[in-house]
Amino acid sequence: xxxxxxxxxxxxxxxxxxxxxxxxxxxxxxxxxxxxxxxxxxxxxxxxxxxxxxxxxxxxxxxxxxxxxxxxxxxxxxxxxxxxxxxxxxxxxxxxxxxxxxxxxxxxxxxxxxxxxxxxxxxxxxxxxxxxxxxxxxxxxxxxxxxxxxxxxxxxxxxxxxxxxxxxxxxxxx
Length: 174
Prior knowledge:
The chain has 174 residues and is mainly alpha-helical. The protein is built from 8 helices and 2 strands. It is 63% helix and 5% strand. It starts with 17 loop residues before the first helix and ends with a helix.
């Protein structure tokens, strides 16, 4: 197994169906509880373990999900209110090295994920097919991305990082 991608890389080709989108929205809604369950019972020492050699500590993974998904919600709102806006990239690796990601209790980001995902799914459940066809431009990757595709990408993203935690726990017995 490639510990960097315990569930594989995100891949979706073709049209995003309403059924697929509905499943992805459910995945996004369930992520906060899955993240909470993944770290349940871990000590501070265990939360400071990297999920793989050279990887982030488990607590950094939790804080990263909050950072990443906050950025995603903002990107969705920009795309919904502007005509193919260029979004603001950020250096996720450098963000993960900031003191809040390395030292702050994960409960803060677990609560943030719960509130953020509640709001995000409320928004996602009200969007029309036309809304889901809206796009933003990512200057770092030089890609224009549709919102329906991004729902899938972030549904995968949450599962991907939860799997970082659960696969480490499985491998080490913690």
